[in-house]
Specification:
Order of helices and strands: HEEEEEEEEHHEEEEEEEEEEEEEE
Structural class: alpha+beta
Distance between the termini: 33 Å
Bound molecules: zinc ion
Shape: globular
Strand content: 35-45%
Helix content: 10-25%
CATH class of the largest domain: Mainly Beta
CATH architecture of the largest domain: Distorted Sandwich
């Protein structure tokens, strides 16, 4: 812990222990976002405070800004709690809009993408998971990019939505963690906002050519099944920069972009990035 951080915590400890009630009205100066399953909220609170929403927790940054995700099956009412060094400072009940998720049946999937069995395939899958987890385990960039307006990475017909249950060749597999846009192979994909490339991975087993962009505060977007990767891990990109092209690599039955939004490991609905956030104060 840096000396600065220690001093800050020490000062807050004194402040919190003597004036819990006096400051409670000012603990939260901003709270907005998308209070729905697969949504997220953000706000402004005490620097370095702990924020909890349901089972999820986040730490506010040194300016007090925090982001927190809402899982696909969150309860109708979830409690937001803010505490400093374990001392509760503020609670607020949030009503979470509930969704009915459709079921999608996908046929004509290659057998090896439904039931991978060979030792080589299993090793490939394990290696992908390690690389993706390693990228996620790195400290998130504390970039301001997530607060800016996002643009769509491609236009096109939406052929898959966030949260749906999925059956491949009749067998249920994990639920759909993003939006699918059908476009022809070679269509350029534009970064929807400034970011750092957290991972550019060629030839992953299920996702094919894959990109993960870090927009700050634990918020990342994911691009799968690309035909071409035009960036590499560690690159900085600006909104509108071409990061690759649409393809049909990995577990895919036709050219499309699979676009995901993650808060840490939690998959959220990326289409919310285009919706006007609600003020929750
Ligand atoms: Zn998809």
């Amino acid at each position: 812990m840096s000396v600065m951080k220690f001093l800050q915590l020490f000062l807050w400890f004194i402040f919190a222990s003597v004036s819990t009630h006096a400051i409670s009205g000012e603990v939260l100066s901003k709270l907005q976002g998308y209070p729905e399953q697969g949504g997220f909220v953000w706000g402004q609170t005490i620097p370095l405070a702990q924020v909890k929403l349901g089972d999820a927790s986040a730490q506010a940054d040194e300016k007090g800004l925090f982001y927190i995700g809402i899982p696909r099956l969150a309860q109708q009412t979830e409690q937001l709690e803010i505490s400093v060094l374990g001392v509760p400072q503020y609670t607020q009940k949030l009503t979470i809009a509930q969704h009915e998720y459709p079921t999608q049946y996908i046929k004509g999937v290659k057998k090896k993408h439904v039931n991978p069995r060979s030792e080589a395939d299993m090793a490939h899958i394990r290696s992908d998971i390690e690389k993706i987890n390693a990228a996620r385990a790195q400290p998130f960039e504390m970039l301001p990019y997530i607060e800016k307006t996002f643009s769509q990475p491609v236009s096109g017909t939406i052929t898959g939505v966030y949260g749906s249950r999925r059956f491949y060749n009749g067998e249920e597999r994990s639920w759909h963690k993003g939006t699918d846009f059908a476009r022809k192979t070679g269509t350029p994909i534009a970064a929807p906002q400034d970011a750092v490339v957290k991972l550019a991975l060629a030839n992953s087993y299920f996702n094919g050519n894959l990109i993960m962009l870090d927009h700050g505060h634990g918020m990342m977007t994911l691009y799968a099944h690309l035909d071409r990767l035009d960036v590499k891990t560690g690159d900085s990109v600006k909104q509108g920069d071409v990061i690759g092209t649409v393809g049909s690599t990995g577990r895919s039955t036709g050219p499309h972009l699979h676009w995901g939004l993650y808060w840490g490991k939690m998959a959220l609905n990326p289409m919310l990035l285009f919706k006007t956030p609600q003020n929750l104060m």
